[in-house]
Amino acid sequence: MDLLYWMKTNNTWLTPDDIFAHSAKIVPVIVITIVSIVLGTFGNIFTILAIIFTKKLRTTENIFLVNLAFADLFVSSFVNIFSIAGAIAGEVYFKDKRALCEFIGFFCLVCCLVSLFNITAVAFNRFIFICHHSFYRSIFTPMKSLIIAIGLWVFGIMLETVNFMPWGNHGYDKKTLTCIWDRTASLGNTIFITILGISLPVVITTVSYIMIFYHFYQAKERLNKNRNESEKKNTLQESKKLMTTLFSLFVVFAVCWMPYAFIALSDIHDTFNPLVHIYSVTIAHVNSCLNPVVYVTNNEHFRKAFKRILLFQCRDEQRKVANCSIQETQVYSITKN
What we know:
It holds the Pfam family 7tm_1. Strands 1-2 form a two-stranded antiparallel ribbon. It is an all-alpha fold. It has helices spanning 3-10, 16-53, 62-89, 98-131, 133-139, 142-160, 187-224, 230-266, 274-298, 300-310, 314-320, 328-336; strands spanning 170-173, 178-181.
């Protein structure tokens, strides 16, 4: 909580020990947030450029990764900056900036919801492609995928606008030290947003990946019975690596956001220690800088693309690559044969 809030609550002057204790709480948060801003801003910009300039990465499902990168970029480069301002200056900074604080709270939740929606869209995209391939071309054309990506923003905005109703609110939260939606305004509203905005997408994503990996398991069993089909086995292995990368995005998101969702639902009477709240929100926002790390760690195409961007070789790559499309039909035939 900010220093002015402490003064009003305790009705006493702050001592050097008070200031030191406050600093000890917020300094780690500020350091983590600054690192998130730098990594998230550059990492997500690199991700967008990598997909635009690398033909191997310009696939239908990566439309959702670009959409995800934009949502994470907005959190990293905009929301997190005001999180630092809120942590350092406290509520007094937003005293005459109520409209700005409400917009930050609104925009933050929209971007975070859209991030998860895109991760869910990627999982569902791969589920249809692998398990119900005959429907894939009719559902996920480039144009339809773009419309779906835009629709995710529309849905995120619609879901967040319930906080403008009498049972919701936005404002500066003295426990998280940032402008955010008011989780204490109404228990029903908190349950509604947490279940529909977080829990349901997590369930859909989990089921999608379970079905996908089960499908890959069946395909591997079939190929093991025919050891001469080494080429198909190699293709299957490559496809599994891609799925592992995409699944890692979901795991990272769940690890970062589920603690916050649990705390928001559990602390009905707002009695939890402020440190629990501030670090749960900080860790949740860290997710916005981790996805590029997942790409570089798990995907060779992204590693090469990031390197080319750093060396300003994007245009050279665009001219050199003639035929780099992913052999989706071959993957499908392996999982079905």
